[in-house]
Amino acid sequence: MPHERFGEQPSTRQRFIEDCFVICPVRIALVSDIHGNLVALESIASEIEEADQVVCLGDVAASGPQPRDTLSFLRRSRWPCVLGNTDEVLAGRGKENLSRLKMPEDERQKMVSLHGWTASKIDGADRRFLAGFKQTIEVNTRSHSILCYHGSPRSNTEKILSTTPEDRLFEIFSGRVANVYAGGHTHEQMVRKFGSSLVVNPGSVGLPFFTDPHGDVKNPIWAEYAMLSLSGDSLRIDLRRTRYSGKALEEAVRRSGMPDPGWWLRDWVWPGREPQTRPP
Ligand SMILES: [Fe+2]
Questions:
Q1: Which domains does the chain have, with CATH numbers?
Q2: What's the gap in Å between 185 CA and the centre of ligand 1?
Q3: Which listed residue, of 77, 121, 238, 265, carries a Cα 20 to 30 Å from 38's Cα?
């Protein structure tokens, strides 16, 4: 039963999932990689309220302007969360290896100071909350099983992409049977087949990206998530993108006191915004 896996008493919603499944569709929202962007998360809050259950796939607070407020939101929401790689570092249980990232040295230094600022904005209660996130979460209805993780069931830094070979997926999912495998980490929305199952990535709520025709990586001003609708044996997966206000994000960044706000905002694009120059 889902509530046993969450380690909580059965909520009204979980009872609803178990009791009502035969006669009405059950909707499960998947959100991932919020990265301290509460403006983006709040833009989808009313839409994901439609769901009977929300599961957060990790990387909730690091690398964005509103780490503490995002954690407060999640604590109030009581959504089950899996432990992302940056959550593990913020919780004090892991070490971030920024040297693995391919980026110019000055950008790496900005990233280091951003992570230091984030760590300084949260307290012991926030760290304990993060440390309580699970490696994997299973959601079971009467005819579907959904296995949730951050990168993969065995590692929160492992990437599952649309191009990951099928034989590698067999290795990754070995011994973990599910109808739907759901994870984030890559910030790339995806649905693909794996045997008779589906693999879904809802993309990123707070730090989505795309590559423009010049090869530059940009951040669009939309929040990505997925909505699963389960009814009898049928399954529908909607990958969604909700636009929000670039001005609201800009204001949150300027108010936050985060280091290098202009650098953090540089690659975001929204209607009416002048393209920001990159150093040569
Ligand atoms: Fe992430």
A1: 26-269 (3.60.21.10)
A2: 5
A3: 238
